[in-house]
Amino acid sequence: MENGLEPVSVLTPRRAAALSHMPETTKWEIELDIDRVETILNTGIFAKPESMQHPLFDSALTELVIRVWDLLAKATFYANRVAFTDDVIIKGVVMDVTALIKFARDAVCHVVDSWKSNNDALKSRVFFNAIFGKGCVVEINEESIESPYEDDVAFFFGQQRLYLRRHIVRAYNEAVAQLRPLLDRPRPA
After folding, report:
1. Whole-prediction pTM value?
2. What residue spans define the domains of the chain?
C-alpha cells in the first residue's frame, strides 16, 4: 500500500463495496470532468505556440490537470490505476503517469508549496513553461529542460515534464475507458 494506494490487483472489502454501488454524485462528477476535458481540448488553446500568450492558457492547463487527476483518482478507486511510465521521469513521488499528473496538479494549485520542492536538481524554479514541438527551454547547472518530440506539447514543472498527448490525453482516455462502463446509464448524445 505504497503512497496510500492499494494495489489494483487486490479486491479489498472497500473496493468491492465501491464497485457494487457508485454514488450518483460521483457519476455526475465523472460526466462533468469528461465534458470539461473535452471542451478544453476542443478549444484549440494547446494547438499552436501563439496560444501561450492567451490570457487563459494557464487557466486551461490548470483546469485540465485538475479534471484529469480527478478522473485518474476515481479510476484508481473504482477500477484500476492508470500506471503507464512511457516518457515519465521517475523521480521522487513520480512513479507513473497518475503520480506525474498529480505532481503537476499540485504544482499549479499550490504554487507556494511547489517552490519548496526538493525534486528540482536544477536548483532553480522553472514553472509553467511549455514547448510546442521539439526544443529546449533552458540549460542550467549542466541540466536541461527540453522536449525531443516535434508532435507534442510539453509542460514543465521543475525537471518534471508533462506531455499533452503522450501523458494527459492518453491517461484521460485510459481512465474514461475504465470509468464509462461503471456509469450505468446511457451517455447523452
Report:
1. 0.82
2. 23-183
